[in-house]
Amino acid sequence: MFIPFHDANTLKHIKVQWVTLALIALNVAVWLFISLESEQAAQATTVGLGYIPAIAFGQAQLAEGLDIVPEPLTYLSYAFVHSGFWHLASNMVFLWVFGDNVEDAVGHMRFLLFYLLCAAAGALCHGLLTTMPEAPLVGASGAISGVVAAYVMLHPRVKVWVLVFFRVPLPLPAFVPLLLWIGQQFFMLAVAPDGDVSWGAHVGGILAGAVLILVLRRRGVPLFDREIVTPRAVRNEAGVGTAVAAGADGRIERLPWGRGRG
């Protein structure tokens, strides 16, 4: 439906989104490693790191030598394996655009916890809903879905540039494309649960992200953009605790911080 590529949303609590960058780097590194393997070895790695509901629920067992990580860890490891370049790229673009502000809202370590819990929730929901329990689930979509849900709860009014139908660039309030995207995941789960895309993992991640942002966000971080906060650098130039705006008659007015008028 759309691809996000930029949001006008500065960081307010952290200088650099270290965890977001590390997650992107790790996903890319795993993809490169698997893509350089032989086809047979790549399939074995995908099976060994992927989440397989039949294995997780004790209905089947992996062949000897394929159990790369202990089975409980596949609730997380699957989220770092992707089936191809475009699968990886689409997930990492969403993480790049939206992950930094969610990390900013919760802090570095809590964002890592948030991301992993959303991934695990996506795997669990997929396992409960899938009709193909022996097929391995791979991809960061469950975790990314949680990031999207958190972002729209934190910053629904922030302008996000998106490519609509991969062609038309438009600046839209975040709630417009993101709520449409979230609605699409629930709709597709209802009408087309059996397919190459695990809509169940997406929905599980969305639900987890919406709940976790309520309890993991920093104290004082508001929901739903109650106020557009002026970046610290701009605020300092205008004067501590104030924002500056030009009145209709050309005079300079000092307004309550963060409430400048255009």
UniProtKB/TrEMBL annotation:
Entry's family note: Belongs to the peptidase S54 family.
InterPro entries for the chain: Peptidase_S54_rhomboid_dom (IPR022764), Rhomboid-like_sf (IPR035952), Rhomboid_protease_S54 (IPR050925)
Key words of the record: Hydrolase, Membrane, Protease, Transmembrane, Transmembrane helix
Domain of life: Bacteria
Membrane topology note: Multi-pass membrane protein
Gene Ontology cellular component list: membrane
Subcellular localization(s) per the UniProt record: Membrane
Peptidase S54 rhomboid domain ranges (all copies): 73-218
GO MF annotation terms: serine-type endopeptidase activity
Transmembrane segments: 16-34, 46-63, 75-99, 111-129, 135-154, 161-182, 197-216
Keyword Membrane found: yes
Pfam families: Rhomboid
Name of the protein in its database record: Membrane associated rhomboid family serine protease
GO terms, biological process: proteolysis
Lineage of origin: Bacteria, Pseudomonadati, Pseudomonadota, Alphaproteobacteria, Hyphomicrobiales
